[in-house]
Amino acid sequence: MNHELTTEIKWATPNVNVYEDEDKLSFVVDLPGIKESDVKIEIEQDILSISAKTEETSSDENLVYKEYRQSSYFRKFILNQKIDEQNTTAKMKNGRLFLELKKLKPEMKKISITIN
């Protein structure tokens, strides 16, 4: 059997559904084969980044053909509102990430403008 064996990393864009209501943004992200500990979620300068990487679990010297490969997932989203970082939740279930970001209520302050 003659097959090329490689350990190259495959980059993938995960499927995502985004929901918005008055007080939150919700994301459902497909991350098959990813452990919760391998997911990284960050918000920096109003940009949400979700990344994950699978790790090679075994190296079998008798392996002659391989379709399972290391892979990485990465998505970025520009958020159009400020997020309440104290009230965010993330959980993994059946290969899906469920992320909920609570929106911060905009400050409503009164401004007086003097005419010169």
3D structure, described in words:
The protein has 116 residues and is mainly beta. The protein has a domain of 80 residues: Immunoglobulin-like, CATH 2.60.40. It is built from no helices and eight strands. The strands form two sheets. Strands 1-6-5-4 form a four-stranded mixed sheet, with no helix packed on it. A hairpin with a 2-residue loop joins strand 7 and strand 8. The N terminus is likely disordered.
Q: Helix/strand/pairing class, anyone?
A: mainly beta
Strand order of the largest sheet: 1-6-5-4
Q: Sum up the overall morphology in one term.
A: elongated
The CATH architecture of the domain at 13-56 and 68-103 comes to Sandwich
Oligomeric description of these chains? single chain
Query: Count the strands?
Result: 8
Cα separation of the termini: 86 Å
Strand content: over 45%
Output mean pLDDT: 84
CATH topology assignment of the domain at 13-56 and 68-103: Immunoglobulin-like
- Percent helix: under 10%
Compute the number of helices: 0
Uncertain parts = 1-7
Rg, rounded, reads 21 Å
CATH class of the domain at 13-56 and 68-103: Mainly Beta
Spell the H/E element sequence.
Answer: EEEEEEEE
The major sheet is characterized as: 4 strands, mixed
